[in-house]
Every structure is written in C-alpha cells, then in structure tokens.
Amino acid sequence: MRFQWEYLAAGAAGIIVLMLVWFAAPIFHVAGANALVLRAGILLLGVICIVGLLLWARSQRPELPAAAAVAPEVPTARPAFLHAGRGSEDVDILIREAADKVAAARLAAGATAWRIRRWQDQHHGPVRIGC
Prior knowledge:
Elements: H1 5-27, H2 33-60, H3 66-70, H4 86-108, H5 113-124
C-alpha cells in the first residue's frame, strides 16, 4: 500500500484528539462524571471527523481504469526459448490438445443426462441395457 497524505493527516488529527481528551478536563476544571462525558464527547467527535476526512480524501482520488484494475496485460509474443527446436513443437502440440479438451469440456458443461441420452438416440439408435 502506498503512503498517502490523508493517512498522515489522520494520524496527526488522532494525536491532537487524544491530547484534547487527556487534557480537556483539567483545563476546564471538570471532575467526576462530567469529565467522563466531556472526554467521551471529544473522542466521539474526533473519530467522526477523522473518518470523514478519510472518506472525503478517498472520494477525491482518481479511479483506475476498469481494464487495468481487473487484470494486467498478457504479452502475446512468444518467448525466445519456445523457438528453440523440436522440443517446442512437442509442447505446442500438447498445448493445442489441452486447449481442444478444455473447449470440449466447456461445450459439455451445459449438457444434462436427458440431452446426452437424446443425442445418443439420434446418432447411434436407442441404447439397450441388459440382455
């Protein structure tokens, strides 16, 4: 995560709020339950202000383009080691076969038992099980 100015400002505001919470009661000569209420109020207002600052700063940041945020670009050029010789041709054949199998599996993903049975009946005749 990159360091940004709003985190520095939020940290400084947090320190100021904590100092106000600590020193407010003695400065205003408040004691007991009144001091607790004063401290809780200052703390609550400070937290609300800090969260508001962070949300405002986040809304002001420019958004990343959707394509760059989803996935980085994949290079289309083949690396030099794939052009080496006979071994690369074998690998290419295996990759093509794997891609064909994946494509066939995607086509069959929507198939149900009823559709497969209907296709078998149309192309190979009804399947007889048993004697």
